[in-house]
Amino acid sequence: MVDYSPALMTDMYEYTMLDAALRDGTANRRCVFEVYTRHLPAGRRYGVVAGSGRILDALERFHLDDEDLRFLTDRRIVGADTIHWLEDFRFSGTIRGYREGEMFFPNSPILQVEGTFGECTLLETLVLSILNYDSAVASAASRMVSAAKDRPCMDMGGRRTNEWAAVAAARAAVVGGFQGTANLLAAQLYGLKAIGTAAHCFTLVHDGEEDAFRSQIEALGRDTTLLVDTYNIEEAVRTAVRVAGPQLGGVRIDSGDLAALAQRVRNQLDALGATSTRITVTNDLDEYALAALQTAPVDSYGIGTQLVTGSGAPTCAMVYKLTERQGADGTMQPVAKKSKDKASIPGRKLAYRSYEYSLADGEHVVSGSERSLAAFAPQSDWRDLLVTYMDHGVADSTRQGHDAIVRAHEHRAKALEELPITAQSLMRGDPAIPTTVHLL
Amino acid sequence: MVDYSPALMTDMYEYTMLDAALRDGTANRRCVFEVYTRHLPAGRRYGVVAGSGRILDALERFHLDDEDLRFLTDRRIVGADTIHWLEDFRFSGTIRGYREGEMFFPNSPILQVEGTFGECTLLETLVLSILNYDSAVASAASRMVSAAKDRPCMDMGGRRTNEWAAVAAARAAVVGGFQGTANLLAAQLYGLKAIGTAAHCFTLVHDGEEDAFRSQIEALGRDTTLLVDTYNIEEAVRTAVRVAGPQLGGVRIDSGDLAALAQRVRNQLDALGATSTRITVTNDLDEYALAALQTAPVDSYGIGTQLVTGSGAPTCAMVYKLTERQGADGTMQPVAKKSKDKASIPGRKLAYRSYEYSLADGEHVVSGSERSLAAFAPQSDWRDLLVTYMDHGVADSTRQGHDAIVRAHEHRAKALEELPITAQSLMRGDPAIPTTVHLL
């Protein structure tokens, strides 16, 4: 059972700004906020968007109950008028953005939130938390999946990140190209494929390895995967095949020199007639380790720490910035801060990907007023990158739930294939395609 | 409103192992599992324990409802007998461990979980998720607090990590020495001090900076903190003092060369008579940036990304290992896996810190059988590091909630003071004190 509201998963200043803006009237000004990142993590060629569907899930739950309102009152965070405004708050704006599974680059307008200042400002932290973490995981996952070539990658990272982050990570991993997860809550909430083997403690709690293997096979059948590195691998593989027969589903190796061990275990399994028994390896794998295992006889990978921590880039540095707002005269006006090194590009954006011979060769971010953008005609073969997630408070439910994740998983594969092959290089370098900002 | 059960925040194999162990009888064997890390993040001198109290919170909620049981059945993860066993599952074991706020080192037995194999194995992922993330944040926080000397550090990192991780991070930051958080849910759940200023969008939504400052002061009073780097800092400071008077509470700078800007802003504020107006700086601060700001006239720090991502070490690599279990003859026996590079130390542990002239000079991990440990006499000045969190299913409620966090915050300061001064060095090096393993 999972029941909660994300309304207080936010920084205090969003409520104090709301309070002040309600008093002075600016809370009702129409606004466009945009999520983007100024740069990719050092050396990365692209990022993968994930989490946008979870924002729709969160907005469904976003409401303040009496306890929350009392908290805001007791702590003197907002005044009585704001409490009244919050009583039946529901976001009624419009959200557009990149598809989940889409590649993004510096300045890509990953999400656009349009509504009143009051309602949009309340979402800042929540939107960023979801996109920054989920996209970090999906971006790392995508590199790992490329490095693993056709071998399935499975998420086993739950234990190395916050317990809720683990659930989000499992979903983001599948968006990023993974096939399944060990995390049961993610499997339950999102209909993902759940996978698992056994832990060393299962062997250790038994009086001997053979007892443990027999028990696991009895409970799970011969197609299960036995963990063979608790004591001596060679002996364990012999025992495993003796107990399960050559129909044994798989073995897992979780320590040592994985490439060398996989080869020896493959040889041993083949010699024992277990030619179709699969080998899964785990143990702090990252995309570089996977690349190094390409010639080893491995059938699938269980990936943990480096997946859920974004393989060196645990967040995407995405920001949520006001780019257009209604002025005192009622017209929409582009705005931007001028802070040193952190200046933003004024005006709402359109976004397209351009192609040459079916290969992506550029990201185009077009900025301007509502009117100039309406008149803008992209080149005929440019792909429009923005889709609608929510229209005046009504979510596009096809962007939530299991099917949306499957589509995102498929979109990521297609969109990556469109990029120059350097995108899949693990060497540090520039973004795979340049971003051009067109100021209308 | 927050209501959920963490029972499925776990890897699938824990339920399949439970299923097999219930069939073969080993699920009822008494076991001791221990949480420890084999190494600190590269170059770190110590880690800080955080999250143990959250484990007690999680165990209170840990139950499976009909939907969960149906999920486990429909996915064929466990059989009917296991479903029956799970129907009114409640952890009834004993949990000991290091205090929150305590320093830990390689092989420190940070948490000990004792109970039947069945009940202990279900907790593995949840316990590790909580301790690995919370301790990573507390460990980073502690280094930042040292580097900030007496200046208060505030958590503003929620937007750069998963939305629930943000709540845990705020709590862990305070355990690690921070004074407060911007995160409202953390403030609500744990009674933490909530802090905040304003965002650039608040200035931008107004027709001019002066309008924004006036509105904020009207809503929040003169003691508020105004953000002064949306356009031109010098002009903004002038406007801020003109609008609020010299009683203005504070200004925040979020970009540029913070040390130089803080000095210029201080000079300007003093010249305007605003000598007690505080300066808060933010902008991707980490412990090294804080150390570099020591001589700048800064009054407090808002710290985000690097806090919630553990400043380069987003997880602690803690593992949960079976170290002792009942054998077929009913006696408790030390056990350990022998995996290459990942071998574990058999037997349950005691843990002490030794001193010379009131300064800690060693961590002592004593391993043996139940009997030999009962007979072990530590040196008279050794400090016993293990406290009881739960006794046969009954939580020590003084280790949960707001007061426990305050005590952990205070304990961290005291325990750090006991360590050699090199512990507070930001230079890479060995753990501040060596760990000696005594095998009885």
UniProtKB/TrEMBL annotation, chains A, B:
Free-text description of this protein's post-translational modifications in UniProt: Transiently phosphorylated on a His residue during the reaction cycle. Phosphorylation strongly increases the affinity for substrates and increases the rate of nicotinate D-ribonucleotide production. Dephosphorylation regenerates the low-affinity form of the enzyme, leading to product release.
Pfam families documented for this protein: NAPRTase, NAPRTase_N
Alphabetically ordered keywords of this record: Glycosyltransferase, Ligase, Phosphoprotein, Pyridine nucleotide biosynthesis, Transferase
Catalyses which reaction(s): 5-phospho-alpha-D-ribose 1-diphosphate + nicotinate + ATP + H2O = nicotinate beta-D-ribonucleotide + ADP + phosphate + diphosphate
Gene Ontology CC entries for this record: cytosol
Enzyme Commission code: 6.3.4.21
Gene Ontology molecular function: any one: glycosyltransferase activity
Domain of life: Bacteria
Pathway(s) served: Cofactor biosynthesis; NAD(+) biosynthesis; nicotinate D-ribonucleotide from nicotinate: step 1/1
Annotated Nicotinate/nicotinamide phosphoribosyltransferase domain residues: 153-340
Ranges for domain Nicotinate phosphoribosyltransferase N-terminal: 8-132
An example Gene Ontology biological process: NAD+ biosynthetic process via the salvage pathway
Annotated family: Belongs to the NAPRTase family.
PANTHER family reported for this sequence: NICOTINATE PHOSPHORIBOSYLTRANSFERASE, NICOTINATE PHOSPHORIBOSYLTRANSFERASE PNCB1
Functional note: Catalyzes the first step in the biosynthesis of NAD from nicotinic acid, the ATP-dependent synthesis of beta-nicotinate D-ribonucleotide from nicotinate and 5-phospho-D-ribose 1-phosphate.
Protein name as catalogued: Nicotinate phosphoribosyltransferase
